[in-house]
Amino acid sequence: MYVISLGDDGAELRPLEPWRAEEFLTHMNRGREFIGEHIVVPDLVTDLESSRAFLQSYADKTASDTGRIYGIWSDGELVGSVLFRTMDLNHGVAEVGCWLESSAVGKGLVSRAARVIIDWAFEERGIHRVEWVAKTENTASIAVARRLGMSRDGVLRESYLYRGKRHDLEIWSVLAPEWRAARQMP
């Protein structure tokens, strides 16, 4: 197993694998209401079996090179995740997703973790375009896309049916040459 430091505050990025299902469920239970404001994961992960199944689905995606999930730990506690919801190596496109418990917000954890996995996608896997999709009202997620240097591509109007209501989704992206150029800047 590997651990990647996310900075001097002790935050870490690690693979989130099925054997961590109990820890993942505990994390979901702590953050269920906050995380569930914008994404469906807390509705999918409700007990140990569904927690294991969710993580196994990403283990399967990792094995088939179509997605990956990583946990964000702060002070030794799982507090969030960044992931490639999808990865299409043939077309060179990946979609990044994320969430955090409310206690971990405002520390730059998602931005730092997303930078690590986006670097990996561009430099190691040959991805050309990384996308970020967020509900229009999810201003925190959109702020991360901006901090990562992404451009707003557009809005998919009422394309996301969530808990009985239709929501607009914003699509943000960054291309490999843009990412590399931004990293060269002082």
Walk me through what this model shows.
By secondary structure, this protein is of the alpha+beta class. Helices cover 37% and strands 34% of the residues. It has 6 helices and 8 strands. It has helices at 21-35, 41-44, 48-64, 109-123, 139-147, 176-184, and strands spanning 4-5, 12-15, 68-74, 77-88, 93-100, 129-135, 151-162, 165-175. Strands 1-2-3-4-5-6-8-7 form an 8-stranded mixed beta sheet, with helices on both faces. Strand 3 (68-74) and strand 4 (77-88) form a beta hairpin. Helix 1 (21-35) packs across helix 3.
Keywords:
186 residues, alpha+beta, eight-stranded mixed beta sheet
Question: What is the topological layout?
Answer:
Layout (H helix, E strand, L loop, with lengths): L3 E2 L6 E4 L5 H15 L5 H4 L3 H17 L3 E7 L2 E12 L4 E8 L8 H15 L5 E7 L3 H9 L3 E12 L2 E11 H9 L2
Parallel strand pairs: 5-6
Antiparallel strand pairs: 1-2, 2-3, 3-4, 4-5, 6-8, 7-8
Number of helices: 6
- Percent helix among the residues? 25-40%
Strand content: 25-35%
> How many runs of DSSP E, i.e. beta strands?
8
Strand order of the largest sheet: 1-2-3-4-5-6-8-7
